[in-house]
Write a structure and sequence with these properties.
Length: 131
Amino acid sequence: MIMTPFTTLFITFMSLFALVASLPLSARLQARDVFVPPVLYPHAGTVWYVGQYHNVTWETKDAPVNITNSKGMIYLRNNGLIEMNEELASGFNILDGRVEVHVPNVPAGNNYSIVLFGDSGNYSPIFTILA
Ligand SMILES: *[C@@H]1O[C@H](CO)[C@@H](O)[C@H](O)[C@H]1NC(C)=O
Ligand SMILES: *[C@@H]1O[C@H](CO)[C@@H](O)[C@H](O)[C@H]1NC(C)=O
Ligand SMILES: *[C@@H]1O[C@H](CO)[C@@H](O)[C@H](O)[C@H]1NC(C)=O
């Protein structure tokens, strides 16, 4: 067979396909166990005041039986950037569906959002924090 760039590409593609198809079923199923729970609260229109306590909540009904990492973390995102020094909660069980957080003393007037980490990160809609 003449190795044109196309046949090379085709062979590469076919070997990748064969590789994926040859993975054990368990490896392919495990990939589906990554749990990205949708955040329910805070939602668009939520207003929090600095110093208040609120329950961040998320959907757990679609959680797979075995999840790769059940320990959750919550960070604040300010104008699209995750504030790594504003950890709101950590070490809770991602299957709990809620965790109480203390609203940190952050500047008012920015676009805030919550990032929930379990297996993977998930953002809440943008909401407001006032002083
Ligand atoms: C958060 O939820 C728990 C359990 O329902 C409740 O006991 C607690 O008072 C709630 N916290 C706030 C700030 O609403
Ligand atoms: C979940 O993990 C347990 C223990 O490793 C295993 O026995 C069970 O078959 C797993 N269930 C699913 C649905 O993967
Ligand atoms: C917040 O988002 C709105 C809408 O996307 C935008 O118009 C506004 O400039 C943002 N505010 C800040 C402080 O980034």
